[in-house]
Amino acid sequence: MGRITVRRRVTRLTVGGMKSAREDVLAAEEPLEIRVGGLSLAITMRTPGNDIDLAAGFLVSEGVISNGEQFAAARYCAGASDEGLNTYNVLDVTLAPGVAPPDPSLARAFFTTSSCGLCGKASIDAVRTKSAYTARSDALRIEAALLTTFPDRLREQQAVFEKTGGLHAAALFDGVTGELLVLREDVGRHNAVDKVIGWATRENLLPLVGTVLMVSGRASFELMQKASMAGIPLLAAVSAPSSLAAELASELGITLVGFLRGDSMVIYSGAERVLESEFDDIPEAISSESIGAA
What we know:
There is one protein chain. 23% of the residues lie in helices and 29% in strands. The protein is built from 8 helices and 14 strands. Helix 1 packs across helix 5 (189-202) and helix 5 runs parallel beside helix 6 (221-229). The protein starts with a strand and ends with a helix. Mean pLDDT is 84; it is low at 279-284 and 286-294.
């Protein structure tokens, strides 16, 4: 497997202070080529680790598969370097018998960067992916007090971030008990989410009814779409959502919570799922109508 962290000699400089040299720990970033049946589908920049989860989650996000039974196996391809050594940067997925291979139009024309999970889409139409699940009818109801504990619990479990300060995290919580089901870190926020969804896929947990997806950064359109593809009814972020994320959340019936910090939050869609007297009479912060008029 590739390295999750790397060490590098750096110079620390303080304005008006002293200059010193030291060794610093950085989060690793390497390319991963995802193949299906030997054919290249995408190349993403990621932090090595949980690559099979990443591949499985990516296939769910792209609509290639919708449950764990459709994901048969995955193996690293040997001889990926000029010297014939296995770099652990090429992963070939085998789908279950009878599962249709990815449509050739899904193949990414170039790198998916660590900051953009939609980069390389062949067309604008390909950005929107239809989910096999619907979150609108999900009966999840969660106490606001429980929801506000998730950011700190996510942060406490970010082992690599603690060393590097340079990784995003995504975690899946049980919305009823508050149990932390899984947490993944990566240089790309979309990769961290794919790793979480991929874990759930391989555990045969899809659709993720009654769960909360908590992310360490902002809530983007791509993360909202990934939540939809896995049947997740609530996406919470410590930072702001984008306008498209809020619009998509309203359209799909997914609860979107932003600025989840301390004892407060902003609910952009699906406020009825968050139970607390302070929120009972507060309308959704952004409606699809107001977004469309902007």
